[in-house]
Specification:
By secondary structure, the chain is an alpha+beta fold. The protein contains twelve helices and ten strands.
Length: 384
């Protein structure tokens, strides 16, 4: 028999995350960091101090020894409370799981406690100007020179690029490998590495308080000890990481959708037209009922994908379904939220326009919705 009830520990962490986020992620602060495109360092540090970041790390590395499931509960609550601040904070440990899963003992001991303790931020350097959805097309190279590796290339759309202390970098180490992705390796690069340069990408549509950057590598030298895991296995490491991290993005979308729904429900109860609250009109009631149904369907998908991953049996097809559906629904929910707010939904005071802008990225990064459909189709049809 399947048990759909959260455990007491899961309920406790869900409630704690909700209380923290509701109290700390004020609308005024969210609008400020959105307008100024600033990362909320103070709130991030508080979240770390309370154990919300790296909750899925083992206790020996500063975590709580929990799983991806507990992590996505936090992600959902943070993004429900505020799409802008929540998104920025939950992505502060992006790609650290590559170190957690494949790194050496020394790498784990150096990086993970700092991430969980609010002393460091990570960035995953995968996407390139001519290699977005097609990860196999990367050109950044790492060549052996004595006891060191020399990295040259450029990455773009890198989350946390301008504020990261550690960069997890995917590079070509065997250019003659066939297929070529069998010659990719991941490296741990520190922010003070000579030849590493970051350039902020400003003017984004949404998630403006989550820094995005171009990252270039010009003769950046790292040691043999900075290779993450096995040489030439980087592509497979990143794919395994994405199978988990895409669930987090699905939870981000779920939280944003729930937050937009909460605000819309409150609004239709208060806003009056023709002598009564607009929520009394059957047309709006039916729209809300339909959105609530889709919201709960999205939650079940996301929770199921997280449960499978937490059980040690991640399902790439289910993960793709969860990300595809939750991302698409988040955009739809926020669009409906603006429509039901009318003219008020179009101004920043009511927040739903910002939620809409923040929701859209969940259909794009860590694999566009088209890429997710490819994964789903391959899962049900196999390879031709």
């Amino acid at each position: 028999m399947v048990n759909f009830e959260l455990s007491q520990d899961q309920k406790d962490i869900q409630r704690a995350a909700r209380e923290f986020a509701v109290n700390e992620f004020t609308p005024e602060r969210a609008r400020e960091v959105d307008e100024k495109e600033e990362f909320p360092f103070d709130l991030w540090k508080k979240a770390c101090e309370l154990g919300f970041i790296g909750v899925h790390y083992p206790e020996e590395y500063g975590g709580a020894g929990m799983t991806v499931f507990e992590n996505i509960l936090i992600v959902e609550e943070f993004c429900r409370a505020d799409s802008t601040i929540g998104s920025a904070i939950i992505l502060s440990d992006f790609s650290s799981e590559v170190v957690l899963k494949f790194g050496s003992q020394e790498q784990k001991e150096e990086v993970l406690p700092k991430i969980a303790g609010g002393k460091a931020i990570t960035a995953g350097c995968y996407t390139e100007p001519e290699a977005g959805s097609d990860l196999t097309a990367i050109k950044t190279r790492a060549e052996k020179d004595g006891d060191e590796w020399v990295i040259n290339g450029a990455k773009t759309f890198i989350t946390n690029g301008t504020i990261a202390d550690y960069f997890i970098v995917l590079a070509v180490t065997d250019p003659d490998a066939q297929p070529r992705y069998r010659g990719f390796t991941t490296f741990l690069v520190r922010k003070d590495a000579e030849g590493l340069k970051t350039t902020k990408i400003g003017g984004k549509f949404g998630i403006r308080s989550s820094p995005t950057a171009e990252v270039s590598f010009k003769d950046v030298r790292v040691g043999e000890e900075d290779v993450i895991g096995t040489l030439n296995r980087g592509f497979y490491q990143v794919l395994e990481f994405f199978n988990e991290s895409r669930i987090e993005i699905a939870a981000q979308a779920l939280g944003i959708a729930q937050g937009a729904f909460d605000r819309t429900l409150n609004y239709v109860k208060q806003r009056k037209q023709f002598g009564q609250p607009i929520g009394a009109f059957q047309s709006l009631q039916h729209r809300l009922a339909d959105l609530k149904s889709q919201l709960e369907a999205a939650r079940l998908l996301v929770y199921n994908a997280a449960w499978k991953a937490a059980s040690g049996n991640p399902d790439a097809t289910l993960t793709a379904i969860a990300k595809y559906y939750a991302g698409k629904f988040a955009v739809k929910m926020c669009d409906e939220a603006i429509q039901m707010h009318g003219g008020y939904g179009y101004i920043s005071e009511y927040d739903v326009e910002r939620f809409y802008r923040d929701a859209k990225i969940t259909e794009i990064y860590e694999g566009t919705k088209e890429v997710q459909l490819n994964t789903i189709a391959r899962g049900i049809l196999g390879k031709f």
